[in-house]
Design brief:
Elements (H helix, E strand, L loop, with lengths): L1 H28 L1 H10 L5 H21 L3 H19 L11 H24 L6 H5 L3
Length: 137
């Protein structure tokens, strides 16, 4: 298992990064629809928060993939995930055309992503990352 440790760490970090990068890019192409979705869910200041979310998801996703400032980026994305969960996957509310079962599933999935980000924030990316290169003499 020790021989697989490094590839598993890198793959896990890259997959977490992609989890944010891809939706961040999709929010750019589907900007109007996402802003309307946020407004439907009662998100205050939907437009500026959508822009901030795109920046955090794209930038944070790329940072995780590269292993740059991994602990801080993972903690920031964990906070973003928690806020998104409360506002956007609020299965306890009913929305026209929405599915409580789908929102419940997304809520629980995001809590697992949140947990993974907390572990990454605690451990960092000590190997095969820009963080590791920066600490070399």
């Amino acid at each position: 298992m020790k021989a697989l440790s490094l590839p598993m760490e890198v793959l896990g970090r890259v997959l977490l990064g992609l989890y944010f990068l891809v939706p961040g890019l999709m929010k750019i192409t589907g900007y109007v629809a996402m802003q309307a979705y946020m407004t439907q869910h009662g998100v205050p200041w939907a437009q500026p928060l959508l822009i901030l979310t795109i920046v955090l998801e794209v930038g944070g996703g790329l940072a995780l993939i590269a292993g740059w400032r991994t602990k801080w980026v993972a903690l920031l994305l964990a906070g973003l995930t928690l806020v998104i969960n409360v506002y956007m996957h609020d299965f306890w509310n009913f929305y026209e055309g929405g599915s409580q079962q789908h929102e419940t599933q997304n809520f629980i999935k995001n809590m697992a992503i949140f947990a993974g980000l907390l572990i990454l924030a605690a451990r960092g990316a000590p190997r095969a990352s820009l963080d590791a290169r920066a600490s070399l003499p």
